[in-house]
Amino acid sequence: MAEVVIVENKTAAGALVADEIVRLIDSKADAVLGLATGSTPTSVYQALREGLAGRDVSKVRGFALDEYVGLDPAHPESYRSVITREVVDPLGLDPQRIRVPNGAAETIEHAGDDYEQEIIDAGGVDLQILGIGTTGHIGFNEPGSSFASTTRVKTLTEQTRVDNARFFTSLDEVPRHCITQGLGTILRARHLVLLAFGEGKAPAVAGAVEGPVTSMLPASAIQLHPHVTVVVDEAAASQLKLADYYRYTFANKPAWQGI
Ligand code: PGA
Fold it and tell me: pLDDT by residue (tens digit) across 162-216?
């Protein structure tokens, strides 16, 4: 089962996950990180500024989960821009080694397959950071997504567009399509770390961790993966039936085990 770690707040979550990423990079200089965008992972990236300071990160590679289709990469809310601003620049990563799916209309027909090949050529993702949407999506795999899916174009649900409208000047500006790693792509990463904060995420978190495995809640695909860490605050954990067991398990974890 997924290891569920209930933390006090976002800062504690960021520190915990950043520590694991630093450990990974210390043991593998050319580690491949799976990078999520959105509000959720920002505390991880923030903590990594300190955690990675003074380390050689020139060989670290990264693959973003998704990108909007048809949005100019120079737009401040394109995921290329977000990853550059929040991850590449502050952490001093090599921009050439950090890939984002290509949402340009001209190449969209093969952009998914190209991206899959790039991930394979890099040796696969070592640690994949994930947020979770209120619809239960991971990446932009909306309800109904196949567990075998690979990187491809998807249509965003209205709920996701509304959720993301806060990043744009109006709902109309939010793209309707995206290109996202599939659930099958995500499941191939060696370690999944899913973060969620706030009450609004509680139903999706409970469904993902303890509900039936169903494409209607795409994040439930994590139950099929052998190494998953779910890091949540009390509010996002509030609908977990086994919350006390998760607390007990983490409190009694052998010191030598990472997350
Ligand atoms: P958020 O989005 O981190 O902005 O809440 C999560 C997601 O949609 O995966």
Answer: 999 999 999 999 999 999 999 999 999 999 999 999 999 999 999 999 999 999 9
Q: CATH classification of 3-257 is 3.30.390.50, yes or no? A: no
Q: Is 178 helix (H, G, I), strand (E, B) or coil?
A: strand
The CB of 218 under 6 Å from ligand 1? The reply is no
Report residue 202 CA to chain centroid gap.
17
Tell me which residue has its CA closest to atom 8 in ligand 1. 133
**Is the whole model's pTM more than 0.90, yes or no?**
yes
Atom of ligand 1 nearest to the CA of 41: 3
- pLDDT tens-digit profile of 88-143? 999 999 999 999 999 998 999 999 999 999 999 999 999 999 999 999 999 999 99
Distance 254 CA to ligand 1 centre (A): 32
Q: How many CB atoms are closer than 10 A to CB 124?
A: 15
Q: How far is the CA of 52 from the centre of ligand 1 (A)?
A: 24
202, 235 Cβ separation under 8 angstroms:
yes
Which atom belonging to ligand 1 lies closest to the Cα atom of 132?
9
Distance CA 191, CA 188 (A): 9
